[in-house]
Amino acid sequence: QVQLVESGGGLVQAGGSLRLACASSGRTFSGYDMGWFRQAPGKEREFVARITWKGGSTYYADSVKGRFAISRDYAKNTVYLQMNSLKPEDTAVYYCAGRVSAYSKYTYWGQGTQVTVSS
């Protein structure tokens, strides 16, 4: 069983930076890709970024392009989300997720980490 554990959230002022990490424990993750999603209060969960596990191709939501960067450490079985130039609207619970193929839903989810950006 793959278990995902996020870390790195916190409180930061607008314009600041945070780096989130998502470590895979238990069985080594060897699926198709891993992604970051976020959910703000009163809003639906939305896609933020994803990275293919083997090829390292990256994809971003328009709202974070140029500010966020997703990367992975294959040896550590960890995915990172570097968040720069943070805005108050980035405030949300951030979740990492993994899926086994490009045609499947994300079936592995972490517990989430809170990111709060003050103005």
Report the end-to-end length measured between terminal Cα atoms: 40 Å
Low-confidence stretches: none
Shape: globular
Biggest β-sheet strands, sense, barrel = 7 strands, mixed
Mean pLDDT: 94
β-sheet strand percentage: over 45%
Structural class: mainly beta
Estimated radius of gyration: 13 Å
Helix count equals: 0
Helix proportion of residues, in percent?
under 10%
Q: How many strand segments? A: 11
SSE topology string = EEEEEEEEEEE
Keywords:
single chain; 119 residues; mainly beta; seven-stranded mixed beta sheet; four-stranded antiparallel beta sheet
Describe it for me?
The strands form two sheets. Strands 2, 4, 5, 6, 9, 10 and 11 form a seven-stranded mixed β-sheet that branches. Strands 1-3-8-7 form a four-stranded antiparallel β-sheet, with no helix packed on it. The mean pLDDT is 94. 0% of the residues lie in helices and 54% in strands. Strand 9 and strand 10 form a beta hairpin. The protein is mostly beta strands and 119 residues long. It is globular, with a radius of gyration of 13 Å.
